[in-house]
Amino acid sequence: MTRVLVAGGTGFLGRAFVRGLHHRGSRVAVLTRNPGRASRLALPAEFVEADVRRPGTLAPALHAVDTAILSVQFPGYPVEAPARGRTFIEVDARGTAALVEAAVRAGVRKLVYVSGVGADPHAARSWYRAKGLAEASVRDSGLDYVIVRPSWVYGPEDRSLNRFIALLRAIPFVFPQLGDGSGRITPLHVDDLADLVCEATLGAAGDGLTLEAGGPDVMSLDDVVRTAMTVLGRRKAILHVPAGLAKLAAVVAELVPGQILSRDAVDFVIQDGVADSDLARSRFPAFRPRSFGAGLAEYLSRT
Ligand SMILES: NC(=O)c1ccc[n+]([C@@H]2O[C@H](COP(=O)([O-])OP(=O)(O)OC[C@H]3O[C@@H](n4cnc5c(N)ncnc54)[C@H](OP(=O)(O)O)[C@@H]3O)[C@@H](O)[C@H]2O)c1
Predict the structure, then answer these.
(1) Which of 99, 113, 143, 245 is at a distance of 20 to 30 A from 10, taking alpha carbons?
(2) Mutate which of 28, 46, 53, 72 to test ligand 1's pocket (most atoms within 8 Å of Cβ)?
(3) What is the pLDDT of residues 52-104, one digit of tens each?
(4) How far apart are CA 101 and CA 281, in angstroms?
């Protein structure tokens, strides 16, 4: 039985990977900073304590692991907190590099890195740059690898779409949308991503490749809200809050304790994120993600 380690296995995406791997008969271990808290998640996995920001903790977690999925992100993202080491560069770029180094030393055979659309080691934006640097660590490791670059991922346990839906239900007449709503994305249901990642982890069809992964619909952020309104049966006007105004508020938010909002996070949430899934589909013919409307209706019917 293959032993797979999921770093970030307690997270939104990681939990879906853990369940998908277990369903396929793998023995799964989850790397977490807090095994006590993680054990309350009722995941079919054992928990190993480690922190990617403390490289000395990583070796025991990688012992006897065949394949490791790297799906770590700092708490509170995309709002960075540099004083607490919660930045894309610190956790995504340096943390991944530390994990890769420990994996090589431990004799891990294969790495699967969960990147993101737009990853580029030379990008000006720190999140694209961090993902690009992390990808380079994985490619240069000498181990077998697959890199998956998802577009925006949604599902019953996400934070972003559930916040949207709570707002749609709570605020009468209007829906406040950050920016002009024109950013284009290809929403991907978390279970469709998990199927792709699990198949790429356990088989060889994606080895050595970088696979973008998105849903079938190319939608503007306003389209996402309109579809959610239709599915919920609530029609409201979309009130665009100019990004400049939100950044003014962010200047104040950056001065108070807690990761409420930052100017960079405003850019993060209004940006484009369109995935070209052709390569993923050609290597994994079963990768046929559901439409956003269908995925949303399915999970709203359960809440
Ligand atoms: N969600 C999306 O729409 C989306 C789209 C594209 C790409 N991605 C990428 O997919 C990955 C997973 O995202 P997500 O939404 O699942 O994130 P998430 O729900 O916030 O989960 C983050 C995970 O990282 C772990 N973690 C945080 N700091 C750590 C540290 N210092 N050492 C070890 N583990 C640490 C957490 O585990 P513990 O708290 O248990 O330690 C948690 O399991 C990220 O790299 C993200 O950039 C996400």
Answers:
(1) 143
(2) 72
(3) 999 999 999 999 999 999 999 999 999 999 999 999 999 999 999 999 999 99
(4) 31
User: Is ligand 1 within 6 A of the CB of residue 91?
Assistant: yes
> Is there a domain that residue 172 lies in?
no
Task: Look at residue 171 and tell me if it is in a domain.
Answer: no
CATH number at residue 204: 3.40.50.720
pTM of the model: 0.97
Which ligand 1 atom sits nearest the alpha carbon of residue 53? 31
- Nearest by Cα to 113 from 229, 207, 249, 243: 207
The structural domain count of the chain equals 1
Which range marks the domain in which residue 144 is found? 3-158+187-215+273-290
| Residue 66 is assigned to a structural domain of this protein | yes
Query: Is residue 72 in contact with ligand 1, taking CB distance under 6 Å?
Result: yes
Secondary structure letter of residue 93 according to DSSP: I
* Helix-helix angle 263-270:243-253, to 10 degrees: 140
CB distance 152 to ligand 1 below 6 Å: yes
**d(CA 14, ligand 1 centre) in Å:** 7
